[in-house]
Structure formats: C-alpha cells, structure tokens
Inverse folding.
C-alpha cells in the first residue's frame, strides 16, 4: 500500500465547494491538512460509497480537512491512492483483502506501467486534492509481493494494422479511437488489452522507457498514422528513439526552478536524493528539436512548460537523467534557463530560414531583440545533395521552400542554364529578362505581389492537386490560367511531360509501331511519385491536347478507407439534415416576412393614431355635453309620479262623467244623449253654441252655393277710414275649445265639422 508522509499531508490544498466557502470563511493562513478520521470495516453492512466523481465503488476510509472537519469525504482504495497518495503513516488498512476494489492501483512511483485492474482507468477530478499538485514520494511499506499486477507494452500496431479493414478499437467503453498499442498483464499474459494513445497516457502514464519499447525505431509515416487514427489530442507525446547516452553539448545547463519542482529535484524524499550515485551526477539538457512553422501556425500550439509562461513553445529540451521526458520552452525562458541558444554545431538543424526565424520571434518571445542562432552562410547544409540553383527564383509559399522551417532547403530546378558554383557569377541578362517576363505574366493574371514557382516538385504537387480537384480534362492553357501564371509555361510543359503516363511522342510521323516502341524505351523515366499520374489525349496541336488524372493513383485504387468512407457518409447525412433545417428556417422567415409586410408600417400607424386621437377627443366632448344635459334622477322620478297621478285622476273623472251621462240618458228617456253631449270638441258641449255655429255655417254655405244675385248697395258716405284687418269672408262664428280659449270658426272648418 502506498502511504502518505506527514510532510506531504500538510501541503495539500483541496478545492471546496462554493457553498462551503460562503459559510466558513478561512481567516488563518495555515495550510489545510487532510487526514483519515475513520477506517471502514469491510464486514460492515452499511458501507458508504466513494464520493469521487463518476466513482461508485465502496469506500475504505473517511477523510476530513482541518479547516472543515465536519465535511467528511469517503474514498475508495483507488481514489485514495490517486488523490491522497495512499494510506497515511500510522494508519493500517483493512485486513480483509477480498473486499478490496478491483480498480485499486498498487504501482511504484517510478514505474508507470504497474496496474491492478484488467481495465485500467484513471480516477476523475472531483474538486478535491489532486495528486498532481504535489511531488509523489515513494514508500518503504509498498507491497511488492507475488500478487502485484504489472502491465507491459508488448506490441505497437503497425501502419498496415492501423489503416487496414481489420483494425482494432480501443477497449475502453467511452473511447472510439483505434488501438495503437497492446498491453499484457503479468497475471493474465494471454489476455491482451488494446489501447489508444489518449487512453495510454491516462491509464499507463504514457510511453515506457526507450529500453522497454518492443521496437527500436519508428518511421515518420508510422508516427503520423498513430497520431491520425489513435489520438484526438493535438499534443500527444510520441516515443523518443534517441541515443541512450545523451550527447554532451559541452555545457551543463542549470535546471530551472519550475523543472526542479516538477521533477522533484528539491524534494529530499524522492529517489534521486536517497544518497545514490546517480543523484550526484550532473544533469545535462540537450536541444533535440525546434518547433516548425506549421506547428506554430495552428490554433492551439504547444505552450511553454513553465507554469508562469503563456507563450508557445519554440524548442524541445531533453534531460540526460530523464531522456523520455520533454521540456517545451519559449525563446524567453530558453534565454533565462539555458543561457540562450547552444552552439551551431549542437543544434538539431543546420539552417533556419528567415521566415522561420521571424515566426519564432513573433510567436515565442515578448522581447523585441531576442537573439537567434547565426549560421555560416558559406557552409551549405548538405553539399552532397545540394544542387546549383538561381537565387532570384522564389516560392509561392513557405512550405515549398523549407521542410517546416527545420530541414534543408528544397532545391530549385530552373529551365535556365545553371551557373557553375566556382564562377559565382550574377545571372545573365537573358535569365533576368526571362524571369521578369514570367513575373509580369503572373502579375497580369494574379495581381500585384504574385510569385512564380520554378521548383518542379512543388509545381507538380500544385498541378496534380488542381487537376485532381477539377475532375475534368484540361489543356495546357487552361492549367496555366487556373494557376494564374504562377507556373511558367516552360516549367509547366516540363512537369506535364514528366507526369504523363507512357512518354511517347503523339506527334511522331513514323508509322512503324516497332520504331515507336523502341523509341519510347530509350526515353528516360521520372523517378518521383508523380510519374504516370496523368493521361494524355493527343490533339492536332500541343494546345489541343488534354490531360486528365489517373485516379487509380488515389489511395486504395480510386477509393477511400472504411473509416473515411463512413465519415464521408456521416458528414453528407449531417449536411443534408442541416440543409433541411435551414430550409425550414427560411420558410418560417418568409412567412414571418409576409405577415410583417401585411401589417401597416410605423408611418401609417402614426397617421392612424393621430386620426384616432382626434376622433376620441371629439367623442369625449360629446359625452361631456351629454352628461351636462342629463336630468336629475329625483326630478325624473317626481315627474313620473305626477304623470301617473294625473292619469289616474283623469280616468276617475272620465268614469264619473260617463256614468253621469249614461244615468242622465236613462232618466231623461233619451232627451239628453251621451253621444250628443260628446260629439263636440269639448267634453260636454253647449247646445246653444253648437246650434248657432251650425246654423251660421249652413247659411254661409247656402249663400256660396246659390246663383249670384246682384245686390243693391246703399250709397253711404265714408265718414272715416279704418286701419284694421279686413274681416275674412270665410269667418262664420266663434266658440270655446277644450282649453277654454276662443276659437274662430271658418267656413272650411264648418265643412269639416259638418262631415
């Protein structure tokens, strides 16, 4: 069992929840100490479960912090080892080993491949003290019996196993990567455990030492296949196949304080300071790699290993005491910790391009005048492979000129006759004129700042990529225009001739097939991988001839890997679903647009609001006027009662009058008739008045109805004049109406009364 020393227990700084921080404010500056307050008996019936996140195993001990002793923390054997470093000194573990969880790790602090589980699994972070926050110390009481299970890397899957159809998957349930390595246990050596690079780093601590690897060398293609198919992280470590004894640079680099804290250089409890001879040896740090341009240009480059530094790493250093552990450093930390760049002879590269140095200065340093290594311009990087080139030709991008900024320059091949190296003459006027002509054509098609490509490997790569994506035949003029003159026509024609399959002359006039066959056999063949990648369909002229890609040169013979094909199908289906979703959104947007367009605009609503306010104001005035004309409710009730009273009195008097008239008619034996009494306008008419009126009316009618007779008028003297109104000829008499008023009776009224 791994045990935790008293010194390390006092340096723990666990994370507590926000609620605990709000309730219990820590006022002292003493470090928080975690200790075991209870050892759970395996025979108890109600054993608590582990409190760690995503862990449901049975707890073996209960821990508590010195600042919050009431907040207990039950943990299992595995989580206790991962988070607290194992059992503390003076506390004995439970005697019953049968109840020990299957996932308990009993591993040495220096051997990362030791495991106790068939399915290795790393304890998850649960917001408590993390074992990575302190230096892990070995224990003298660690169990090293026969029951200890160890895991060993037995096989690294080859590139064919990774890319073939029968590739294996990682055996962890929550992982979908392809398996990269095979581990076997000492207890069950026949059972293999397949793991990917991510799970290997989390479960086994990464790659073992170089002397424990099943292979002694690994190609770059194999490493690329492992990183592509077996890892999802961008900065996965790969095994280092360097020399077992690091080369001596002649300078002893002092280890940085950050590295000393991480590697346990200042911890007397670590094995390096137990008094062994190895701890007394001086540590040498070698520069093994300079980060390339491509690795620095990605979105999340590898950061400097110094905790307080956030710059991207520029170099990789390896210690002589731990050659498998890499230390990434930026230019500022390199100058501070290692004294700057080593000698030119000790650098892992022989040259650095100006663009590479510029990228390193911009991204990996905050100092404006950071020093960079100075290379001897007279000494070429590789005289055996370097070809004589013209220095006035340029590349279209940085990748055509250097291999990630750390390798040798790619040789330029120009159709212009080369100049002998010993002569060191300037380019001729013809070469300069030709280069100027090519550059003018490129600028005319591609705009100012266009650059030309005269490197045949780079030009072939561009040509093949363009024609492969175009998926159609193209003649030399179309290819030239597609690249906007970046590839001059002589270079383009030379590249196409090298890439054409079967380099026979289609314009040979000889009719002899045997002669043509012999002639084709004499022609040299290209040795690059672009040879035979294009087909030629001959035309009447060279400009009428078309080129098309031989797609059998594609991977797996015009096909894709099973995983890539499945990914393509999945991406296509996802694209179709996203398109349908976007179409639905477009339709809903159109419907909403129509609805909004059918509604009035803000200007129209303002006009309508003004009209409505004016109408409302006029209606309000009318309502106020109507309220002023409203009769008092009390007066209204009084009027109603008076009307009802008058009506009842009238009905009473009418009944009495009618009773009286009927009684008079009965008593007088019809001499006084009720009908005759009620025939006039009044309630009871006077016989004298009615008779006189009727007689006057009858006389007037008689006068008007008879023939006119001349009347003798008496001659009278008008003694006086009258200014009054002349009497009407129709006036007959006067009578009283029902209201007691005098009313004139005219002849016409008499006709109406008669009728």
């Amino acid at each position: 069992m791994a045990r935790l020393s008293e010194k390390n227990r006092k340096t723990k700084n666990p994370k507590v929840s926000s609620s605990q921080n709000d309730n219990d404010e820590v006022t002292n500056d003493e470090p928080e100490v975690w200790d075991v307050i209870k050892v759970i008996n395996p025979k108890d019936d109600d054993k608590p479960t582990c409190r760690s996140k995503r862990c449901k195993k049975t707890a073996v001990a209960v821990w508590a912090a010195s600042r919050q002793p009431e907040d207990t923390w039950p943990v299992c054997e595995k989580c206790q080892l991962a988070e607290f470093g194992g059992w503390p000194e003076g506390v004995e573990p439970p005697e019953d080993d049968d109840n020990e969880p299957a996932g308990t790790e009993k591993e040495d602090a220096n051997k990362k491949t030791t495991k106790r589980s068939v399915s290795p699994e790393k304890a998850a972070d649960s917001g408590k003290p993390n074992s990575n926050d302190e230096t892990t110390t070995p224990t003298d009481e660690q169990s090293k019996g026969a029951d200890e299970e160890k895991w060993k890397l037995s096989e690294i899957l080859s590139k064919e196993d990774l890319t073939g159809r029968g590739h294996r998957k990682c055996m962890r349930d929550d992982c979908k990567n392809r398996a990269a390595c095979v581990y076997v246990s000492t207890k069950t050596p026949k059972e293999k455990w397949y793991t990917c690079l991510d799970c290997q780093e989390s479960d086994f601590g990464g790659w073992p030492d170089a002397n424990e690897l099943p292979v002694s060398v690994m190609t770059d293609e194999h490493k690329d296949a492992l990183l592509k198919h077996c890892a999802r992280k961008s900065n996965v470590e790969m095994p280092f196949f360097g020399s077992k004894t690091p080369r001596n640079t002649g300078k002893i680099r002092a280890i940085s304080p950050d590295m000393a804290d991480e590697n346990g250089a200042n911890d007397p409890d670590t094995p390096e300071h137990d008094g062994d001879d190895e701890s007394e040896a001086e540590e040498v740090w070698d520069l093994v790699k300079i980060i390339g341009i491509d690795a620095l240009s990605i979105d999340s480059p590898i950061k400097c290993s110094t905790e307080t530094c956030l710059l991207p790493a520029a170099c990789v250093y390896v210690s002589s005491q731990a050659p498998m552990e890499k230390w990434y450093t930026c230019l500022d930390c390199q100058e501070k910790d290692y004294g700057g760049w080593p000698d030119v002879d000790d650098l892992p590269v022989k040259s650095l391009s100006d663009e590479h140095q510029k990228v390193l200065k911009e991204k990996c340093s905050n100092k404006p005048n950071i020093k960079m290594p100075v290379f001897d311009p007279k000494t070429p990087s590789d005289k055996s492979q370097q070809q004589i080139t013209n220095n006035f030709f340029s590349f279209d991008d940085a990748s055509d000129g250097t291999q990630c900024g750390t390798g040798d320059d790619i040789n330029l091949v120009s159709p212009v006759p080369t100049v002998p190296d010993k002569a060191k003459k300037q380019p001729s006027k013809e070469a300069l004129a030709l280069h100027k002509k090519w550059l003018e054509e490129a600028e005319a098609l591609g705009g100012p700042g266009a650059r030309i490509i005269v490197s045949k490997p780079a030009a072939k790569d561009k040509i093949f990529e363009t024609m492969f994506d175009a998926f159609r035949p193209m003649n030399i003029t179309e290819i030239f225009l597609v690249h906007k003159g970046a590839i001059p026509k002589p270079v383009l024609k030379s590249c196409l001739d090298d890439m054409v399959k079967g380099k026979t002359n289609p314009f040979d006039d000889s009719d002899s097939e045997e002669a043509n066959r012999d002639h084709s056999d004499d022609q040299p063949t290209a040795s690059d991988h672009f040879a035979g990648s294009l087909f030629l369909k001959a035309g009447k002229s060279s400009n009428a001839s078309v080129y098309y890609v031989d797609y059998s040169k594609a991977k797996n013979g015009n096909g894709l890997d099973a995983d890539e094909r499945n990914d393509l199908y999945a991406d296509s289906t996802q694209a179709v679903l996203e398109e349908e979703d976007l179409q639905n959104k477009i339709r809903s947007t159109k419907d909403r647009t129509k609805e909004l367009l059918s509604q009035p605009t803000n200007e129209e609503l303002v006009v309508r609001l003004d009209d409505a306010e004016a109408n409302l104001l006029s209606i309000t005035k009318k309502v106020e006027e109507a309220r002023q004309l409203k009769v008092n409710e009390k007066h209204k009730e009084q009027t109603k009662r008076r009307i009802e009273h008058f009506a009842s009195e009238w009905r009473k008097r009418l009944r009495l009058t009618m009773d009286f008239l009927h009684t008079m008619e009965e008593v007088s034996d019809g001499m006084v008739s009720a009908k005759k009494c009620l025939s006039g306008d009044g309630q009871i008419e006077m016989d004298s008045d009615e008779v006189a009126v009727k007689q006057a009316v009858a006389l007037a009618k008689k006068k008007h109805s008879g023939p006119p007779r001349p009347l003798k008028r008496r001659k009278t003297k008008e003694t006086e004049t009258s200014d009054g109104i002349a009497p009407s000829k129709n006036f007959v008499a006067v009578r009283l109406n029902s209201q007691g008023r005098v009313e004139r009776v005219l002849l016409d009224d008499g006709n109406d009364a008669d009728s």
Observations:
- Residues 562-598 form the longest helix (37 residues).
- Residues 1-144 form one domain.
